[in-house]
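We modelled the chain as a single entity of 159 amino acids. Its sequence is:
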Amino acid sequence: MQEIYEIIAIFWLSYHMINSKILVGIQFLMIFAILLPKSSIELIAWWWILPLIASVTALWIFTHNKVGNFNITPEIRKDAKLIVTGPYRFVRHPMYSSLILFMVGVVLHWFSFLNVIFLIIMIFALSLKAFREEKLWHVNDASYEDYKMRTTMIIPYIL
């Protein structure tokens, strides 16, 4: 039980101490680290299905959210609008969902212990970004709490 408290404390401290741009840097650094060529064992022949689904999801997102509404850092743009249609009906962070799905497929293709570690770090950075963004949405939009109650954070119907 003590280990769980320590993990929560580390997560809490990380959330409050890490600058948003550093989180974006960690995210992209882990993506590039995973994509670097390494000797690998192909676990399954259908590894490419996950990146394909993620790419289609990203295209679906762009049909509901204007490019100008996106921000790579978790800060909310001054003129941003809360989107609740399309994939946003199911999850509050569909871009993070599609990125994680895409990178899981890549890691399955170029499987190594190191890539799994990079993936975990990337997911951790995305989680911190998501928590920070949600905190800012609560301040900037009164309807966000209702939206949060109707959706999950990253994985539809689960998380």
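As a brief sanity check on the tokenised model: The chain has six helices and no strands. The two ends are 22 Å apart (CA to CA).
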